[in-house]
Amino acid sequence: MFTVHPSISPDVAQLAPGFRALSISVAAAPIVSAGVGEAALLRACEDVLAGQPAWADAHLNAWSDVFRAFGAKPKRTPCSAEALRKRVLRDGAMAALDPVVDLYNAVSLRYAVPVGGENADAYRGSPRLITASGSEPFDTMKEGQDATEYPDAGEVVWCDGVGVTCRRWNWRQGVRTRLSASDKHMWFILESLPEMPLDALHEAGKMLTDGLEEMMPGLQYSVSLIEAS
């Protein structure tokens, strides 16, 4: 079974005691129900406008505190779940992008949890959550052109053997490992702090895997809980 094995560095664990995440590895199958993701996204936007779980604000506030702890400014670069919620509260909805991306954005909105989706075949080595030295390259786009940035020293990033794959923990994904519905091996990471109940984290993971199974029957997946220690 295809499985991604992410790791968390000890210095990151010290920044966010109690951090835990669901790592979901998926060997994809042909998509037969592409509308699953868009429908889930529509419902999730409605959920945000109606009011989120009682712990949602505390969870997103805790992420803001963690971002400040490594020098980020959450009002300018919020965690991915907060950024999605702000868009929905501002616009009332979110446009569909890609069946799989729509689905994991729906999970993020519904459960106020940062969710990343990556093309695992683009990785070189296993994903690692580290504090950056500042020398690791990050591939991105600026004004429609390929560009390379570098994280701040001490910034929390996901990386592999080539460079940074996501800056400021879960703020911005790189181009190289970006996920689309056509990818054969997918890796998802649902990242939570203690303010999010553990059973809610598992529910969020089930929403993702149930939706993927409906979208692409015959896929294979594995789920593991990783924790900062």
Protein described:
The two termini are 26 Å apart. The protein has helices at 10-15, 35-50, 56-69, 80-91, 99-111, 198-215, and strands at residues 7-8, 20-27, 115-119, 128-131, 138-142, 145-149, 156-159, 164-167, 172-173, 185-192, 220-227. It has a 5-stranded mixed sheet with strand order 1-4-7-8-9. Strands 3-10-2-11 form a 4-stranded antiparallel sheet, covered by helices on one side. With 229 residues, it is of the alpha+beta class.
In short:
The protein has 229 residues and is of the alpha+beta class. It has helices at residues 10-15, 35-50, 56-69, 80-91, 99-111, 198-215, and strands at residues 7-8, 20-27, 115-119, 128-131, 138-142, 145-149, 156-159, 164-167, 172-173, 185-192, 220-227.
Salient structural properties:
229 residues; alpha+beta; 34% helix; 4-stranded antiparallel sheet; 11 strands; single chain; 5-stranded mixed sheet
**Roughly how many Å is the radius of gyration?**
16 Å
Class from secondary-structure proportions: alpha+beta
Instruction: Output the number of helix runs.
Output: 6
* Separation of the first and last Cα atoms: 26 Å
Q: What overall form do the CA principal axes indicate? A: globular
| H-E order | EHEHHHHEEEEEEEEHE
Strand content bin: 15-25%
Q: Residue ranges: pLDDT <50 for 5 or more in a row?
A: none
Helix content percent band: 25-40%
Largest beta sheet: what is the strand line-up? 1-4-7-8-9
